[in-house]
Amino acid sequence: MFVAQMAFNAKISDPAIGGTYMTLLNTMSNLGGNWPSTMVLWLVDGLTSKSCVGGIASNSCSNTASVRECKELGGHCATYTDGYYIESVFCFIVGFLWLYFCKKKVERLQDKDLTDWKCPTSLS
Q1: By CB neighbour count within 10 A (0-12 exposed, 13-18 middle, 19+ buried), where does 9 fall?
Q2: 123: pLDDT confidence band, cut at 50, 70 and 90?
């Protein structure tokens, strides 16, 4: 995917203003592609449900202190629902909805002539 984005940016960047336009396009691609993956990975733990099994304590194993308490009392933390699978299904659905609603807009941008992406040379 990175190579495809860079090829698209190289194709539409205006050589009249040098690498500045290419850098701007690459920066916007990186910002748009990196923060969602960071957010999704951060949410995995919150969507995972665990509880202490075999120990006397009944806790949710939601933080390191409760995991330590469970192990000290002879139990172990069992995962009942893994947040990764919940997020996978959710992101799959969001991806198909995005594709359904935005496909025509993306195709319209893709079909634009290369001169439409260039900076105007005069302001007349």
Answers
A1: middle
A2: low
Q: How many CB atoms lie within 10 A of CB 75?
A: 20
Phi-psi region of 74 (alpha: psi -120 to 50; beta: other; left: phi over 0): left
Structure tokens at 105: 């807009």
Question: Using CA atoms, how far apart are residues 30 and 14, in angstroms rounded to an integer?
Answer: 19
The β-bridge relationship of strands 76-81 and 49-53 is antiparallel
Closest by CA position to 51, among listed 72, 74, 75, 78? 78
Rounded CA separation 50/72 (Å): 17
Query: What's the pLDDT score for residue 17?
Result: 78
